[in-house]
Amino acid sequence: MKKIVVLTGAGMSAESGLKTFRDADGLWEEYPVQKVATHDGWLADPTLVTNFYNMLRKKCWNVKPNEGHKLVAALEEKYDVTVVTQNVDNLHEQAGSKKVIHLHGELMKVCSSNDPDDPRYQQLLTPDNCEVEPGTKAGDGSLLRPFIVFFGEAVPNITVAAEECQQADILIIIGTSLNVYPAAGLIHYVRPDVPVYIIDPQPINAGGRNITQIQKGASEGMQELSKLL
User: Among residues 69, 92, 102, 104, which one is catalytic?
Assistant: First the structure.
């Protein structure tokens, strides 16, 4: 069975109604990134950061996977599929994808602020219990923080994602500009003979690689690609 790795970014979830962070009307326009998505921001005002992610979680529970998410999940009928996502939502899982690697953390989880990667103190939140009261402590006595990789922090899953890319027979990239590192570097782990498909409305420069680009949104692009594969 051929192995497909699907790398997804903010454009994957945009059709579901989740704002992308970097677009002109994106979330960073409303909330300064330094205050809500950096370690220094967390230390300076954990209440602001906690409430920001409470707000995002509530929005996230009100959106559903789009056709693109469903078509990615449907690839599992014929291929061994790993999704590597820069997104912190759980729309791939909701659509039925079984193997999802989150590079930038998971919005629906909270963790210890002493050691975010200690699984003993990670908690999965539910739709009816998705708000964290500021000041709530994790099991180790530290403040409970969002399970999000803040800007400037290491990306623990990048090594796992790189290993998956090394084994890929096909790479599909959806809704990411390939400008955000370390995720953008994953294309370099794919063998030179592996076909690369990029789905994005904007023209993407893939660093000299021979690629097939479908200049459409996630859903239309996946419909077209599903026929090609």
Answer: 104
